[in-house]
Amino acid sequence: MTSLFDSTTFGKIGLANRLVMAPMTRNRAEPSGAATELMAEYYAQRASAGLIITEGTQPSPLGQGFLNTPGLHDPEHVRTWRAVTDAVHARGGRIVVQLMHSGRIGHPALYADAHQPVGPSPVAAAGQSFTPEGPRDHPVPHELTGDEIAATVRDFVTSARYAVEAGFDGVQVHAGNGFLLHQFLAENTNRRTDAYGGSIAHRIRLTVEVTEAVAAAIGNERTSVRISPANTYNDIAEGDTDALYRALVPALPNLAFLEVCEMVTRPVTLMIRELWKGNLVLNPHAAPDSFPSTAQTAQQVLDEGLADAVSLGALFLANPDLPARIRAGGPFLAADEATYYGGDHRGYTDYPALGQEDGR
Q1: Model pTM?
Q2: Backbone phi, then psi, for 329, in 5-degree steps?
Q3: What letter does residue 188 receive in the DSSP assignment?
Q4: Contact status, residue 72 vs residue 58, Cβ threshold 8 Å
Q5: DSSP labels for 124-184?
Q6: Distances from the Cα of 289 to the Cαs of 41, 149, 313, in angstroms?
Q7: C-alpha to C-alpha distance for 358 and 355, rounded to whole angstroms
Q8: For residue 85, how far is the Cα from the chain centroid?
Q9: pLDDT tens digits for range 60-77
Q10: Contact predicate 13/260, CB 8 Å
């Protein structure tokens, strides 16, 4: 029986255990998108994870959707991210960067040049962006032209190459949670009539093109994808979820791993497990009362053969030394206390000393 503490290898990425830290936006980058010392400390604290997936990182200025999120599209970003990857590697960890283009999610008030967010079609998202001027309604996005779509693919490739230069062990292409690639996948946000819209075969095209281009640039064994079937976050309505992912999953190239962010859709997860022949990571959420996931939930995923590793978010945020705590049977800081503690836990200087908190 597979244990959470069994080692494994995903492509060229060696994992000391099957516990993956899920990507979580932290809004701690410089306004320029440069990574900070606080980010290096935060990720290094969690280096005992089998693998860390970073917060969503914009592959271009157009990809930014929130205040103080990191970028990876110029040499300064590479330099500052190198401090993060060095800190994680110094503690024996492995880390991949999640490349996330936010698409229509964002607002001109966030950007120095006040540009419009972009999307597959001129359909505004419900809800608001938090900007320096306060909450602002999401605007109608600029509809990407064919040339601009090609440029977006190139942006992902450039960012992936920068990731390798910055010392990351790999890259994750974010194709879920209502951001740009998910916007192309979904019926309500993609009203195009060209080769990137209409039929499911057309709507999956951009996700496949980006993934293939990234894999060609840095190697399939360093490339991964995150999907979130049936996720309605950021005002998304996919349409026929089963048919969409039955088409998308087999169309993806061979990858280091595929991560599924489960949205109370265990039948879809089972379908994807059957369709996907490579390594699968599951961020589990099989029932409305199962959030946040627990150590028991994670082991159950492996016991049932649903995935090869399990990604956890809130538990890693609240418990930087989560693998040690699971081995010891606790204690666990409650996930709802993570906001109070801010997820930093600067008091964790001696990992075996479980329960040490700094009181922030």
Answers
A1: 0.93
A2: 75, 25
A3: T
A4: yes
A5: PPSSEEEETTEEEEPPPPEEPPHHHHHHHHHHHHHHHHHHHHTT-SEEEEE--TTSHHHHH
A6: 32, 40, 16
A7: 10
A8: 17
A9: 999 999 999 999 999 999
A10: no
